[in-house]
Amino acid sequence: DAKTTQPTSMDCAEGRAANLPCNHSTISGNEYVYWYRQIHSQGPQYIIHGLKNNETNEMASLIITEDRKSSTLILPHATLRDTAVYYCIVKGTYKYIFGTGTRLKVLA
Amino acid sequence: DTEVTQTPKHLVMGMTNKKSLKCEQHMGHRAMYWYKQKAKKPPELMFVYSYEKLSINESVPSRFSPECPNSSLLNLHLHALQPEDSALYLCASSQEGGGVLNTEAFFGQGTRLTVV
User: Fold this and answer.
1) Does A43 touch chain B (CB under 8 A)?
2) What pLDDT, on the 0 to 100 scale, is given for residue A83?
3) Does the N-terminal or the C-terminal CB of chain B have fewer CB atoms within 10 Å?
4) Cis ω for the linkage preceding B61 (within 30 of 0)
């Protein structure tokens, strides 16, 4: 299973963009990158996923480097409700394997 | 309906008890998952069912026994647990299988288990 590495914690000012990096240097060619977040012991919430092209949805954007060894999740206008632990996942067949995650704190 | 429902929300059990955790989804998903999450740690995969058959067991001790009685239900039977098994147990489901490979998993809110 490919391993992911994320910073332990980050702060972001409310209304600013939050950029959360993830390294996944051992990712295989057919493995997707997924992002989830978990707000204070609730169940993880899906945010976005991608293979090699950049992706955008109503919650966030995902930028994957050309060599696919790293990615960045972008929350364009962070709010206090975005305070959570953000997990980067390299997904194998049936396996959503969570990394250690980044604790994002959005500051008023 | 994109909901995965887990019951009970909280459970306290003794080390000699037998209890069960339940998980239900009505999204027509064919893959269902059990995860265990200790405090301040990421969720750890325990079991995966695909089309009601156990397809992945991540070397989980036999005191945890999963069961998938039908495509909408997933149970986790607990017997002779230890205090270190206290954790948040999460259930998830996804459409993966039958040619569908990369799709998001939906998680329930979890059962917080305390073993005394």
Assistant:
1) yes
2) 97
3) N
4) no
Residue percentage of chain A with pLDDT more than 70: 98
pLDDT of B77: 98
Residues A38, A99 contacting (CB under 8 angstroms): no
Q: Report how far residue B102's alpha carbon sits from residue A34's, in angstroms, rounded to the nearest whole number.
A: 10
Q: What does the block give as tokens for A93?
A: 């067949």
Q: Which amino acid is at A83?
A: T
A51 torsion bin: left (phi>0), alpha (psi -120 to 50), beta (else): alpha
Got the DSSP string for B43-55?
Answer: -EEEEEEETTEEE
- The minimum CA-CA distance between B59 and chain A, rounded to whole Å, is 14
3-state secondary structure chain A: CCCCECCCEEEEECCCCEEEEEECCCCCCCCEEEEEEECCCCCCEEEEEECCCCEECCCCEEEECCCCCEEEEEECCCCHHHCEEEEEEEEECCEEEECCCEEEEEEC
